[in-house]
Amino acid sequence: MAVLLLAEIAGGALALDATAKAVTAAKSLGDVTVLVAGPAAAGQAASQIDGVAKVVVADDAAYANGLAEPVADLVVSLAGNYEHIVAPSTASAKNILPRVAALLDVMVLSDVTAVVDGSTFERPIYAGNAMQTVKSNDSKKVLTVRTTAFDAAGQGGSGAVEAIAAAGNAGLSEWVEDKVAASDRPELTSAKIVVSGGRGVGSEENFAIIEALADKLGAAVGASRAAVDSGFAPNDWQVGQTGKVVAPELYIAVGISGAIQHLAGMKDSKVIVAINKDEEAPIFQVADYGLVADLFEAVPDLTKALKE
Amino acid sequence: MKIIAPIKRLIDHNVKVRVKADGSGVDLANVKMSMNPFDEIAVEEAIRLKEAGKADEVVVVSIGVKQAQETLRTALAMGADRAILVVAADDVHQDIEPLAVAKILKAVIDAEAPGLVIAGKQAIDNDMNATGQMLAALLGWGQATYASEVGIEGDHAVVTREVDGGLQTIKVKLPAIVTADLRLNEPRYASLPNIMKAKKKPLDEKTAADYGVDVTPRLEIVKTAEPAARSAGEMVGSVDELVSKLKEKGIV
């Protein structure tokens, strides 16, 4: 029983948090070999994760930008030795793993939230409005795991690192550019605290008060889909079923009514605070602490109170 | 160039989902069904490319129960030229898995030879986010998923993709598969005259067997359950009270 885990690479380095969370899910399935389609340093970093038996590194220009076609071909070239192929549910892996599954003539299991046994997994459907347990009858199981559902594996691993050859590149697509938002704030999906604003914030300029609170707390900034659609916040801030799924220690929802699609993206947060002037807002039904107030007064007051 | 847009009929996104008492799935009997919202964006993009002179025909394809022809008519009313319905299930509760859908679409595409396929990035029922990628794999084509901008330049599509942390632009050789994300466009409403006209547009009906595809599911549903409920906590009266509660918990 062996597991091949596709490491998450971001900006040429190992995305440790996402990869370590996937390792936790994967090690219950068997011995974990991590595949790094990227630089040797990322391979070294992956070998330090507790529970990683081995790391194979394919460092080749074809993989530099995570294009689905060459990375999928690489995974498939190694698949023979493994019963499970696992990756964290990131935009990158969700692009690659269904391609891998189809090339292996098996179904993919997306966004797994619990491993029941080697062939049975739980995953959300209908934007998290139902949880389904499914048993795969395929010879190989290809799955992405939702990182908010698993704790990150610790450090202290000492897996052997082996360089492997690349698997070629058919050149079906080529990278042009990345526009990654530069920010000193923590990454949304791994932040300990997230402060999110909704339609109630009212404008892009007004988001500054959300950002001020976030910066005071060392938090990431999120937004509801309504705020993103209204142009108040960039799309990569979107928390929800169609955006990012987060589960921080503390989630502060400001001016967010709490549409189902938003709740699906944050309801696993440990502590939820909601600030909204509408006492009927559904967000209060999931909040640990609710404050009915005008956000334009309450949020600056909160930022100030935390400074003292 | 011909564009194919595959569409799925599923529960309307405004309907509250109810899990069936026997745990076999979600109750779909007598609920409003609509086009998957991401597929609507895909159809809109295909029509816009045609209107911009980049494509000359838009063909919509749906795989599922016979009633999916209503959804195809909606796409025809939006401006698609013709439709293909592949009947693969008798009961609306029988979801056809992305792998089987991709196999049927491959067969359709082998016959139709489109230059581009635009699909929704995921269906909002099973939330698999897989059909486009699987179809690209089976065809041996390039893929550009989660598109927020699509341009056609000669024998390539230049696609801006929504990825973690920002945007990525790639160039993909045609024919290719593009999957639509939310911000690609805002789909139009069909006008009444166009709804009337759509009734006369051609709609071919096939079956999964016509394409020799076995739609037996690979994943067996063990159970379906309501998600764990989160109960409401307490209301606080002021910012100061909120801060002291958070300090008590040791999280700020």
From TrEMBL, chain A:
Name the UniProt record assigns to this protein: Electron transfer flavoprotein subunit alpha
Q: Which family does it belong to?
A: Belongs to the ETF alpha-subunit/FixB family.
GO MF terms, alphabetically ordered: electron transfer activity; flavin adenine dinucleotide binding
Q: Which SUPFAM superfamilies match?
A: Adenine nucleotide alpha hydrolases-like (SSF52402), DHS-like NAD/FAD-binding domain (SSF52467)
- Cofactor remark from the record: Binds 1 FAD per dimer.
Write down a Pfam family by its short name.
ETF_alpha
Report the record's Gene Ontology biological process terms.
fatty acid beta-oxidation using acyl-CoA dehydrogenase
List residues binding FAD: 199, 224-225, 238-242, 255-262, 276
Listed InterPro entries: DHS-like_NAD/FAD-binding_dom, ETF_a/b_N, ETF_a/FixB, ETF_alpha_N, ETF_asu_C, ETF_asu_C_CS, Rossmann-like_a/b/a_fold
Fetch the Gene3D superfamilies from UniProt.
Answer: HUPs, TPP-binding domain
**Cofactors (names):** FAD
Role summary:
The electron transfer flavoprotein serves as a specific electron acceptor for other dehydrogenases. It transfers the electrons to the main respiratory chain via ETF-ubiquinone oxidoreductase (ETF dehydrogenase).
The Electron transfer flavoprotein alpha/beta-subunit N-terminal domain covers: 3-179
**Keyword Phosphoprotein among UniProt keywords:** no
Output the PANTHER family linked to this UniProt entry.
Answer: ELECTRON TRANSFER FLAVOPROTEIN ALPHA, ELECTRON TRANSFER FLAVOPROTEIN SUBUNIT ALPHA, MITOCHONDRIAL
Record's keyword terms, sorted: Electron transport, FAD, Flavoprotein, Transport
UniProtKB/TrEMBL annotation, chain B:
Task: Report the record's Gene Ontology biological process terms.
Answer: carboxylic acid catabolic process
What SUPFAM superfamilies would the database entry show? Adenine nucleotide alpha hydrolases-like
Instruction: Give the matching Pfam families.
Output: ETF
Keyword list, A-Z: Electron transport, Transport
**Cofactor annotation:** AMP
Keyword field contains Transport = yes
Return the InterPro entries for the record.
Answer: ET-Flavoprotein_bsu_CS (IPR000049), ETF_a/b_N (IPR014730), ETF_b (IPR012255), ETF_beta_N (IPR033948), Rossmann-like_a/b/a_fold (IPR014729)
Domain Electron transfer flavoprotein alpha/beta-subunit N-terminal: from-to ranges? 23-215
**What protein family does this chain belong to?**
Belongs to the ETF beta-subunit/FixA family.
Q: What does this protein do?
A: The electron transfer flavoprotein serves as a specific electron acceptor for other dehydrogenases. It transfers the electrons to the main respiratory chain via ETF-ubiquinone oxidoreductase (ETF dehydrogenase).
**Subunit info?**
Heterodimer of an alpha and a beta subunit.
Q: What is this protein called?
A: Electron transfer flavoprotein subunit beta
